[in-house]
Amino acid sequence: MPAKRILILTNRVPYPLNDGGNLATNAMVRGYTSQGWEVYLLSMNTSRHSVGKDVLNGLYKDIYKFETVDVNNDVSAFGILKNLLFSKQPNHAQRFMHAHFQDAILKAINSFKPDVVQVESVFMSGYLPAIRKVTNAVLTLRLHNIEWQVWQRIADAASNPLKKWYLSNLYARIKNYEQQVWQQYDLLIPITDTDAAVVNSSIVPKQMLTIPFGIDIATVKPQHNETLKGYHIGAMDWLPNQDAIRWFATDVWPIVRRQSPDFQFYFAGRNMPDAFSSLTGVGIHCMGEVADAASFIADKKILIVPLRSGGGIRVKILEAMAAGKLVISTTIGMQGIDAVSGKHYLLADTPQAFADAIQLALTNTGLVNEIANEASVLVKQLYDNEFLAARLSAKVQQQLSDR
């Protein structure tokens, strides 16, 4: 049997498992492991998402090796200005370039001798020249989303002229950066067919395979004692989530209150900005960062996804659908999920549409259960992690055989 050794590089420790990025990276590690790969996980332990040593010592004990390198990736006004004036690369890419992390990569390659090196963030692509010099391993990139698309949508939503100009400049630089580095990988692994289409419209990739986020179906537990309460949970230091909650609270909620005065909505997430506590009002509750996401979700039936920007696939939606919850989401929120509005979820792209969907859910529990059940079946058919992991493993092994 040919060797199956993969070095996975991440720009943050995939923990805690309470946001989409961490869940998707963890699923990738678990997927390769389930297919018999020896997995060496090398992660930045960044200042912005630092994980304590006591927690790190208990993570990923069942893989070949898990190693972290402390990295300061703080955002500063001086750093942003310096990057804007003196670099053609986006600030995001420069913030993740550190000599000591590159040394760790090269040391890992020398000792582990991987057949595959997988990069979990496009902004770590600056390490590729150094990697290419020391190994002929297959280089793969996991596209959690199309970064420039995320930032273009944020720029489009900005109202301040100066902020809009800067964000437009940023997304243009990210777009140029992404299109250049995509061509340097042997295999691109987008998370949605929509993202794959964006890549194909920009470049001719060497190889590409869409692998959506997978659910470990065996661990999905049916929910009991749910009530028709709404919730949203996600990383609240991610600008699209901030914009979504602010828009829902200010534009959508007043209509919801008029039409469905008894409806209760709870939102939570890591790194909740202090200012969001002011959004708490009658029927709407800011819960901050919750200790146990599963417990927070357990008694709530309706997932509210008011995203107006962002990209990739919403892991929390797939998890909610698998657990038999009703999803009410914008088109952007459902991007990349092969679901049909009215059958697997309720679509709402305007404040009135959200209010109407919530009112419909509260007055028609039969429809709620029917849609939730159809969604659960869909996820179990199309997004089973073991099936997706086997597909990806076969593709990567074919890349190795073709060399």
What does the model show?
This protein is α/β, with parallel strands linked by helices and 403 residues long. It has two domains: 5-212 and 384-401, 3-Layer(aba) Sandwich (Rossmann fold), CATH 3.40.50.2000; 217-382, Glycogen Phosphorylase B (Rossmann fold, 3-Layer(aba) Sandwich). The protein is 45% helix and 15% strand. It has helices at residues 20-34, 53-56, 77-86, 91-95, 99-112, 128-134, 147-157, 161-182, 193-202, 239-259, 293-298, 315-322, 351-363, 365-382, 385-401, and strands at residues 5-10, 38-46, 65-71, 116-119, 138-143, 187-190, 227-233, 265-268, 284-286, 300-305, 326-329, 346-347. It has a six-stranded parallel beta sheet, with helices on both faces. Strands 9-8-7-10-11-12 form a six-stranded parallel beta sheet, with helices on both faces. Helix 7 runs antiparallel to helix 8 (161-182) and helix 12 crosses helix 14. The radius of gyration is 21 Å and the shape is globular. The two termini are 16 Å apart. The model has no long low-confidence stretch (mean pLDDT 93).
Got a strand count? 12
Query: With helices defined by DSSP (H or I, 4 residues minimum), what is the helix count?
Result: 15
Strand order of the largest sheet: 3-2-1-4-5-6
- The fold-level CATH name of the largest domain is Rossmann fold
> How confident overall, as mean pLDDT?
93
- The N- to C-terminal Cα distance equals 16 Å
Unreliable residue runs: none
CATH class of the largest domain: Alpha Beta
